[in-house]
């Protein structure tokens, strides 16, 4: 901690030399406890440069995105805003509303430090860089409750196959085998995790990146739909809505496990659970150990005021400095975007993630490959699939193929 | 000429000036906005409106999307049931209150009160009441009827009726008050005459009073129907469209397409279809109602 604050002050002093007190409005949707603490690290660091961070937080990603887009298209741009990088911002860039920050990226040498490079690729359109990636979130985790398995008298599974095999014993012990929130994005997420973990990456990429409908109709994808229907049977008693309510079922031992991104870790931390003792995490469901590299990024709208432009540049550079990266990501529970910094204070699960990151067992995130439109169609499909056991895996796959065919 | 008889245009000058803002709003915002939406529904607009023509593609996709079909079906089921039941319940309540009962003010307030709550509150309250774990089902079970089951919101086949219950609870009060006002507007002499002729009360209501209340019925109908077509917040608060997609409605489809799926073209196509549906009902009715009365007048 000491070292962090020292580093922070060093950055502050260095940056202060070019300081000019400019107010910059920054919009984001980080409003939960851990998220707010993390974004405060950015704000403090930015204020340390002599500028002023004007915080404009809007709860809920969807609500926030709607406001951001209407502000941008309405000609009232903010100083900077958070987005999930990937295809969401594509059209804003095409419309020329976002600032090209290639010069800053080059001056700071982002090409060499951002790991994995796909993060920067997701910010790049036609060779120009438009966003500053700040963290990595990965979806491919299953969180297992030791209490649930102890109560049922069976060992904690170490991969998805064992997890499925253990389901009847859990049901007998009055537990829910799989906790799943009844919201489309969670159900789609579960499917995509199965997709990434159960078959080879080539299949995943040819369906989602190359939009190959033939592969999507093939036997390998059929196996994933089979696994999804196993998951549906295991989650049949799960009536909760929010992801953190589902996580809570795992924390309290009422459910065996939950497939959810690394942000679930925050819930375990708040409940004072210890990784490896109270709960286990298996990246890639214990089948194919890999992570997808989604995450958050900041975009900078085109502004006219020179002082504000300078402040934007300072903020962009600051966000990727080692000190801010460490401080921010420890609070957020996400992985840093640069591989050259020390995160020895991170817990077990985070360490596993860091190892995978450095070994390069990575997949691009679906948000970088699919448009929000395609993602929404897939969500609707899985909302139906998980709520209605009469839809067979074959029917669902046929609909999935249709979505992939029409996707761009 | 002009001095002798002021032009028709300048009569009631102040009234016309006062109406200008509304006329401008109606023309530019409503008519203009509607035209714009229809034009862009033939384009491939994503996050931002773009004039990339795709013909009827958006409509083809719309009508081959199961979620949209389900939405339309739900609106039909909800709309028809709501329309019939809210009128029946509202009128019966009004007729009962009209019997010169004691504490009329109190009862009227109690029944109208739900209307003062927003749909979001209504939706949440009924979500809890209909929740099997701590709502009606658990209460009845705690009384000893162990096998009692009442969980419409968790059964995809009847979930829309769970929403209907909430809608009725919220809307009946308003219909009752309007009907009551209508009933009070009926001359007492009519009742006396009917009584002298020995016509039973229910017949008086159906054959004499209700036809006399036509204007009130039309006002109420317009209020109720617009409320039905734009239903959105109740669904979002109560079921979120679930379980599955069993309580999706068109307005929610439009919103989700525009702001979640970043597919404006699809959202515009869906909202144009909603407008078309309303127009198909309203235009013939308006012709009958206003076109006819002019001739009579």
TrEMBL record, chain A:
InterPro entries (UniProt xref): Bact_solute-bd_prot1, SBP
Residues spanning the signal sequence: 1-21
One Pfam family hit: SBP_bac_1
UniProtKB keywords: Signal, Transport
Function of the protein: Part of a binding-protein-dependent transport system for a sugar.
Subcellular location: Periplasm
Name used for this protein in its record: Probable sugar-binding periplasmic protein
Coiled coil: none
Cellular-component GO terms for this entry: periplasmic space
Domain of life: Bacteria
Record-stated family: Belongs to the bacterial solute-binding protein 1 family.
The keyword Metal-binding is annotated on this UniProt entry: no
UniProtKB/TrEMBL annotation, chain B:
Membrane in keyword set: yes
Record-linked SUPFAM superfamilies: MetI-like (SSF161098)
Biological processes per GO annotation: transmembrane transport
Membrane topology: Multi-pass membrane protein
Locations listed in the record: Cell membrane
InterPro entries tied to this protein: ABC_transporter_permease (IPR051393), MetI-like (IPR000515), MetI-like_sf (IPR035906)
Pfam families assigned to the protein according to its UniProt record, in alphabetical order: BPD_transp_1
Principal place of residence: membrane
Keyword ATP-binding: no
Domain of life: Bacteria
Annotated family: Belongs to the binding-protein-dependent transport system permease family.
Protein name: Carbohydrate ABC transporter membrane protein 1 (CUT1 family)
């Amino acid at each position: 901690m000491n070292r962090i604050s020292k580093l922070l002050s060093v950055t502050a002093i260095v940056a202060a030399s070019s300081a000019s007190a400019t107010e910059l409005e920054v919009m984001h949707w980080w409003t939960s406890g851990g998220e707010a603490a993390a974004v405060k690290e950015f704000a403090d660091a930015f204020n340390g440069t002599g500028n002023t961070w004007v915080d404009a937080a809007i709860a809920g990603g969807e609500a926030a995105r709607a406001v951001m887009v209407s502000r941008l298209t309405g000609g009232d741009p903010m100083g900077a805003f958070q987005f999930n990088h990937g295809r969401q911002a594509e059209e804003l860039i095409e419309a020329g509303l976002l600032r090209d920050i290639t010069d800053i990226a080059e001056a700071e040498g982002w090409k060499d430090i951002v790991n994995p490079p796909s993060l920067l690729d997701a910010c790049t359109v036609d060779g120009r860089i438009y966003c500053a990636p700040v963290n990595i979130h990965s979806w491919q985790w299953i969180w297992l409750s030791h209490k649930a398995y102890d109560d049922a008298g069976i060992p904690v599974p170490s991969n998805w196959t064992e997890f499925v095999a253990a389901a009847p014993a859990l049901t007998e012990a009055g537990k829910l085998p799989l906790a799943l929130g009844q919201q489309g994005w969670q159900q789609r997420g579960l499917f995509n995790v199965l997709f990434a973990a159960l078959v080879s990456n080539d299949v995943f990429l040819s369906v989602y990146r190359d939009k190959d409908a033939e592969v999507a109709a093939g036997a390998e994808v059929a196996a994933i739909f089979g696994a999804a229907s196993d998951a549906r049977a295991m989650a049949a008693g799960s009536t909760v809505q929010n992801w953190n309510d589902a996580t809570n079922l795992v924390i309290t031992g009422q459910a065996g496990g939950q497939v959810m991104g690394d942000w679930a870790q925050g819930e375990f931390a708040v409940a004072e659970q210890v990784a490896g003792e109270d709960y286990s995490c298996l990246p890639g469901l214990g089948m194919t150990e890999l992570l997808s590299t989604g995450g958050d990024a900041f975009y900078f709208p085109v502004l006219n005021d020179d002082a504000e432009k300078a402040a934007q540049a300072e903020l962009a550079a600051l966000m990727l400095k080692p000190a801010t990266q460490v401080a921010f990501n420890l609070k957020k529970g996400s992985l840093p975007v640069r591989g050259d910094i020390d995160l020895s204070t991170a817990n077990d699960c985070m360490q596993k993630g860091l190892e995978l990151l450095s070994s390069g067992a990575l997949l691009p995130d679906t948000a970088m490959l699919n448009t929000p439109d395609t993602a929404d169609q897939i969500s609707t499909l899985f909302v139906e699939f998980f709520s209605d056991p009469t839809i067979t895996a074959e029917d669902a796959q046929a609909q999935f193929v249709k979505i992939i065919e029409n996707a761009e | 000429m002009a001095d002798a008889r002021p032009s028709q245009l300048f009569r009631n000058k102040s009234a016309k000036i006062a109406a200008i803002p509304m006329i401008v709003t109606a023309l530019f915002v409503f008519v203009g906005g509607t035209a714009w939406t229809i034009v862009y529904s033939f384009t491939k607009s994503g996050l931002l409106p773009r004039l990339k023509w795709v013909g009827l593609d958006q409509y083809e996709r719309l009508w081959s999307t199961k979620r949209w079909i389900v939405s339309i079906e739900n609106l039909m089921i909800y709309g028809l049931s709501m329309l019939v039941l809210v009128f029946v319940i509202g009128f019966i309540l009004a007729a009962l209150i009209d019997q010169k009962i004691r504490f009329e003010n109190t009862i009227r307030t109690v029944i109208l009160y739900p209307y003062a709550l927003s749909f979001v509150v209504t939706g949440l309250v009924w979500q809890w009441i209909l929740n099997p774990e701590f709502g009606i089902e658990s209460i009845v079970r705690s009384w000893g009827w162990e096998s009692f089951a009442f969980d419409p919101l968790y059964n995809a086949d009847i979930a829309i009726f769970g929403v209907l219950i909430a809608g009725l609870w919220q809307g009946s009060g308003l219909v009752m008050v309007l009907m009551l006002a209508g009933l009070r507007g009926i001359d007492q002499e009519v009742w006396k005459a009917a009584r002298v002729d020995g016509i039973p009360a229910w017949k008086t209501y159906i054959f004499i009073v209700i036809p006399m209340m036509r204007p009130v019925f039309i006002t109420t109908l317009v209020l109720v129907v617009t409320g039905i077509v734009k239903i959105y917040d109740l669904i979002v608060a109560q079921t979120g469209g679930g379980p599955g997609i069993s309580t999706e409605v068109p307005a929610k489809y439009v919103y989700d397409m525009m702001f979640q799926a970043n597919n404006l073209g699809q959202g515009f196509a869906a909202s144009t279809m909603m407008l078309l549906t309303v127009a198909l009902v309203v235009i013939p009715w308006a012709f009958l109602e206003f076109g006819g009365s002019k001739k009579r007048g």
